[in-house]
Amino acid sequence: MLHRPRRTRKNAIVREMTAETRLSRDMFMYPYFVTHGKDIRRPIAAMPGINHFSVDELLKDAERGLKLGLNKVLLFGVGEEKSDDGHTAHSGSSVVPQAVKALKERFKEDIYVVTDVCVCAYTSHGHCGILEDGYVQNDASVELLSKMALSHAEAGADMVAPSDMMDGRIAGIRDTLDAHGFSNTGIMSYAVKFASAYYGPFREAADSAPQQGDRKSYQMDFRNGREALKEALMDEEEGADIIMVKPALAYLDIISAVRDNTLLPVACYNVSGEYSMVKAAAAQGLVDEQKIVMENMYAFARAGSNIVITYHAMDILENGWL
Ligand code: PBG
Ligand code: ZN
Question: So what's the pLDDT on residue 300?
Answer without folding.
Answer: 99
